[in-house]
Design goal:
Elements lengths: L1 E2 L2 E7 L2 E2 L2 H5 L1 E9 L5 E7 L21 E8 L5 E14 L8 E8 L9 E5 L4 H11 L3 E4 L13 E5 L1 H12 L2 E6 L6 E6 L9 E4 L8 E8 L5 E9 L4 E7 L10 E2 H4 L4 E3 L9 H15 L3 E7 L11 E5 L7 E13 L2 E10 L1 E2 L12
Parallel strand pairs: 10-13, 14-21, 16-19
Antiparallel strand pairs: 1-2, 2-3, 2-6, 4-5, 4-22, 5-8, 6-7, 7-8, 9-11, 12-13, 15-20, 16-17, 18-24, 20-23, 21-22, 22-23
Helix pairs in contact: 2-3
C-alpha cells in the first residue's frame, strides 16, 4: 500500500494481507522501544454487511497470537522491517454514524511470548551473555550478545532463573549495564535478540535539523538535562572466595561520551550512591553492578521530537546527529524509542533519544544522508 511516497507492507500470518483488508486500513502505529516490548496498533474501518454482521469481524482473521509484521519503504529504498508481533487485543468502536465504526488490532513483539510462562532453571558455570544467547535460541530468536564476565562456578554459586525468560534476561542486562530487547533485522525481517552495550560509534541513521530554516526536519523538539543525575557509586561486600571484606567503587563512566564533556565529569562535586543488599557474593560482580549503575546515570540528556517522511526510517539502538541546538547541545544522540505512524496519507516518526555528554567533539557528521 502506498501513502504519499511512503509504501508499507502488512503481513498477516506471515503472508501479505489481502487487498480487501488493506483497503480498510485507516491508521498504522508502531511503537518501538529498548526498555519495554514494542507494540503495534492497526486501525481498520468496519461496516455492516448484508447479512447483518460486520466486515473483517465476520471472517475473524486476527485470532490470539496471530503473527503480524509491518515493513516501511521510502521512495526507491528497500522496504525495512520495523516490527514482528503477535495479536493480543481487539478494540472495537461501534459508532452511531455510518462509516465511523473501527476495529483496532493491537499486539506486541516476540518478548510477549518470552513473558507468558514462568520457570525455575539453573544456569551453572555460564556467563550472563552465554545464558542470554541460550535463552534467545530456545525462543527461536537469533541472539546478538556482548560478552560478559565473571562466571559463577559451582559449588560456590549458580545463576538461578525464577520467572519468565524476558524478565530474567532484562535483570541480567541491568546488572551489566546492557540493553535487552528484540528487534527485526531491517532487511531480512528476522527477529534478533539483543543483549549488549550501547553502540556509540558509527554512521548516524539520520542528520536532524532543528530551527534550521528551509532545512528544518524536526518539529516539536524538546530537551531535558538532569544536571545532578550522574553519580559515582561505592559499596563494600564480603568476597566469598577470600572471606574478606572487599570495597568496590565506580567513580566515572566507562562508556564513550557522545560529546566533548561527559555529564559526570561536569558535576563538581559529583553525587555518590551507596548500594546495599545487592545479593552479589563476589567483589567482581559487585564492581560490575556499580559500574553499570554509574554508566546508566550518565545518560542525563533526554530529547524528543517529530520528523516526517523526508527523514530515513529510524530504529532504537542507533545514533542520530542533531544540529541547530547551539554549541552545548549539538551532536550525537542515542535513539531509545521511535513511534511510527501512518495515517491519512502522512508518515511521521516520534523519537526519544539520550545523550551522556554535552558540546560537540568536532568529529560529528552533519552532511545530509541520502
Amino acid at each position: 500500500m502506498s501513502l504519499d511516497g511512503i509504501r508499507y507492507m502488512l503481513l498477516i500470518g506471515d503472508v501479505p494481507a489481502p487487498p480487501e483488508l488493506l483497503a480498510a486500513v485507516q491508521e498504522i502505529e508502531v511503537d518501538c522501544s529498548l526498555a519495554e516490548a514494542s507494540v503495534f496498533r492497526l486501525r481498520f474501518g468496519i461496516t455492516k454487511t448484508e447479512v447483518g454482521d460486520w466486515s473483517i469481524l465476520e471472517v475473524d482473521p486476527f485470532l490470539p497470537l496471530t503473527p503480524v509484521s509491518v515493513r516501511i519503504q521510502r521512495g526507491y529504498e528497500p522496504p525495512l522491517a520495523i516490527i514482528n508481533g503477535f495479536v493480543t487485543e481487539h478494540a472495537v468502536s461501534f459508532a452511531d454514524q455510518p462509516g465511523s465504526s473501527t476495529l483496532d488490532v493491537i499486539g506486541m513483539d516476540a518478548t510477549l511470548l518470552m513473558n507468558m510462562s514462568e520457570t525455575v532453571v539453573a544456569w551453572p558455570n555460564m556467563t550472563d551473555s552465554e545464558i542470554a544467547a541460550a535463552v534467545f535460541n530456545q525462543n527461536l530468536i537469533m541472539p546478538s550478545v556482548d560478552a560478559t564476565a565473571p562466571v559463577l562456578v559451582e559449588p560456590d554459586a549458580t545463576t538461578i532463573q525464577r520467572g519468565t525468560d524476558i524478565r530474567f534476561l532484562r535483570r541480567l542486562a541491568r546488572r551489566n549495564g546492557f540493553d535487552c530487547y528484540v528487534q527485526p533485522d531491517p532487511f531480512t525481517g528476522l527477529d534478533i535478540g539483543y543483549f549488549r552495550n550501547r553502540t556509540l560509534e558509527g554512521v548516524p541513521e539520520a542528520v536532524l535539523s532543528v530551527n534550521f530554516g528551509v532545512d528544518t526536519s524536526v518539529r516539536e523538539f524538546n530537551l531535558t538535562y538532569e544536571l545532578v543525575r550522574p553519580t559515582a557509586a561505592t559499596a563494600t561486600g564480603l568476597d566469598t572466595l577470600t572471606k574478606t571484606s572487599q570495597p568496590a567503587f565506580a567513580l566515572t563512566t566507562l562508556e564513550l561520551p557522545l560529546g566533548l564533556e561527559g555529564t559526570l565529569a561536569r558535576e563538581l562535586p559529583p553525587g555518590e550512591v551507596l548500594p546495599a543488599d545487592t545479593g552479589l557474593m563476589r567483589t567482581a560482580e559487585l564492581q560490575r553492578f556499580l559500574q553499570a549503575a554509574v554508566d546508566r546515570s550518565s545518560w542525563a540528556l533526554a530529547a524528543t521530537g517529530t520528523v516526517g517522511s523526508d527523514v530515513p526510517v529510524l530504529a532504537p539502538g542507533g545514533l542520530v546527529n542533531i544540529r541547530g541546538l547551539g554549541r552545548l547541545y549539538n551532536g550525537s544522540y542515542f535513539l531509545t524509542r521511535v513511534r511510527h505512524q501512518i495515517a491519512a496519507g502522512d508518515y511521521t516518526q516520534r523519537f526519544e533519544a539520550e545523550r551522556n555528554a554535552v558540546s560537540e567533539t568536532g568529529a560529528e557528521l552533519y552532511a545530509e544522508l541520502p
